[in-house]
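Case study B.
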Amino acid sequence: MKNHEHDRIRQLLEHSLPPVGDGQHPARDLWPGMQRRLREPSAMIPDRLKIPWFDWVLAGGVAIVAVAFPASIPVLLYYL
Amino acid sequence: MRNGTMVAEKRATDGGATSTRTPDVAFEELFRLHQRAVYSWILRIVRNHAAAEDLTIETFWRIHRSLGRFDQTRNFEPWARKIATHAAFDWLRARRPESSMPDDFFATVPSPIAANPGVAAEIRLKVAQSLGRLPPRLRIAATLAIIEGLPQKQVAEALGVSVAAVKLRVFRALRLLRKDLREQGITP
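Model:
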């Protein structure tokens, strides 16, 4: 499917956006920030409690659609 | 060097029980050994120095929380890259697409390989904006596999998916980019 066009877009990406590469390093010492992060009270809260409510609603909606319309499962998986 | 790395990983992951050091000291050692690699990996995905610094701390916070689940027989760096990729994904997802590419996008990311001067600045900007509008999971796959030129196997490990899934994501990213660029008057 239009592979030549995809090859052109690949080239355009490569020529437009140079790679960052592997040799980068932070401009400052990050350890003090890391220590502050470890001391934050939120560090003690399990992940489960921090998932926004609308994510649960969305997950529930998707589950209901999947159960009610099994034929939609491949479409849902495609867009995941 | 590798022996020193393994010792630091073991000290940190067993809570310092096998050494006279405290767990905090062992974790600091682990942090200092790997922060550069983690930072560099995140910068490749988000292309923003300030965000990469914050996400490096976020990644090590997640590592600190999950150290008990780390399999010490495996290599630490791929595991850390996977966690870093998820942290970067969460960051990209939380941002509005139109703000994903700052104006100084090309200037803030130094590179040993400069962008091709034959490609007009306007086209480069439009390509960068189109990339920024991609869904984060497609954008990460395209950035790592095409722009950074990393092996698909390494990208797949970092994303926690199969190589076939990476190929599919890159294909879908290219298709969306083609459509988006056409709408902007750029015909590949």
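The longest helix of chain A spans residues 53-68. The remaining cases will be described in the next quarterly update.
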